[in-house]
Design a protein that fits this description.
Elements lengths: L3 H13 L2 H7 L4 H15 L4 E4 L2 E4 L1 H27 L5 E7 L1 H18 L3 E7 L2 H10 L4 E5 L3 H4 L5 E10 L1 E4 L21 E4 L3 H11 L5 E5 L3 H9 L5 E3 L3 H4 L6 E3 L7 E9 L6 H13 L2
Parallel strand pairs: 3-4, 3-5, 8-9
Antiparallel strand pairs: 1-2, 5-12, 6-12, 7-10, 7-11
Helix pairs in contact: 1-2, 1-3, 1-4, 2-3, 5-11
Length: about 300
């Protein structure tokens, strides 16, 4: 029988790209990982990886075997679910990845709710961009990824994932409080902003660029950041303008800015929860999903 540990290592190598990262993911030393890979090759009878320059790459056989491990990991998820169900209590560790505004908007309340209803669930979180969250979901490092719907096509979703709408968020034009448009009551046209300097996040930049191009100009993006607090601080200090999903509740956490409505039919997006279909039967994961639904019911 082929060593399951060797197959899991091969799968991690396919996903992560280096033996060092694959070893770290499985809590192995580099020498132990190299030994496990050598044992697997002896069992299979043909090379499963080869050196190409300074990198270790999978052979065709290695890719076939690594891809088959996806089914194995699905079965392991099912075993975890059976164990949790047999315990007749909702308990266990659930790891969730969120982008910044989703974390600010929902996470403290989610922790409060779970602490009251399911105190034996250990909810662990990481703030990360959508692409990183989906990659972590694929490797099993996350159980739930929270992402904005406008990135769905650009990052791509692999088969075997369950996607659920959580809530709809609105996008606002963010201006310095002394900006000439800050006192405007009517929604602002994007075309009026063609001469502005822009502050864009790593993901929100996609929306800003699309909106501006539709209005006939290319935005002059002068500062880029994935930290909304920094972006808001730069706007507040007069170094540019931005478009962010910041409502009145979130504004309390941020430096003072003027939030204005845009004259755009698409000035909103949906926040999605993405998880492996094989995780849906885990009581702890189901409880976290149920709690998130109730937050926005």
């Amino acid at each position: 029988m082929v060593d399951v540990g060797g197959l899991l290592l091969l799968h991690e190598l396919q996903i992560r790209g280096t033996l060092a990262q694959a070893a770290d993911a499985l809590y192995l030393s580099h020498s132990a990982a190299s030994h496990r890979l050598a044992v697997l090759e002896r069992e299979v009878g043909v090379p499963v990886a080869e050196r190409v320059g300074r990198r270790l790459q999978l052979t065709e056989t290695g890719h076939v075997l690594a891809s088959s491990v996806k089914r194995l990991k699905h079965e392991l998820d099912s075993i975890d679910a059976l164990i949790e169900q047999a315990q007749h209590t909702v308990a266990g560790r659930v790891r969730i990845g969120l982008f910044q505004t989703a974390a600010l908007r929902m996470f403290p309340q989610l922790l409060d709710d779970l602490g009251t209803r399911y105190p034996e669930i250990r909810l662990e979180s990481s703030q990360m961009l959508a692409a990183s969250a989906l990659a972590a979901l694929a490797t099993g490092d996350l159980d739930v990824a929270i992402m904005p719907s406008y990135l769905r096509e650009s990052v791509g979703l692999a088969p075997g994932l369950h996607v659920e709408d959580l809530y709809t968020d609105s996008l606002y034009l963010m201006l310095p409080v002394d900006h000439e448009l800050a006192d405007r009551d009517d929604p602002i046209e994007i075309a009026e902003l063609s001469s502005e300097k822009w502050i864009a996040g790593e993901t929100i930049n996609l929306l800003i660029s699309a909106y501006c191009r539709e209005a006939g100009f290319e935005p002059d993006v002068i500062h880029r950041s994935s930290d909304y607090t920094l972006m808001t601080t730069l706007v507040s200090n007069g170094y540019g303008i931005s478009i962010l999903p910041v409502n009145a509740k979130l504004a309390a956490f941020l430096p003072p800015v003027a939030l204005k409505q845009l004259n755009l039919a698409s000035a909103h997006y949906t926040v999605l929860a993405v998880l492996r279909e094989s995780s849906l039967s885990r009581p702890a994961v189901a409880a976290v999903m149920d709690a998130m639904r109730h937050l926005h019911a």
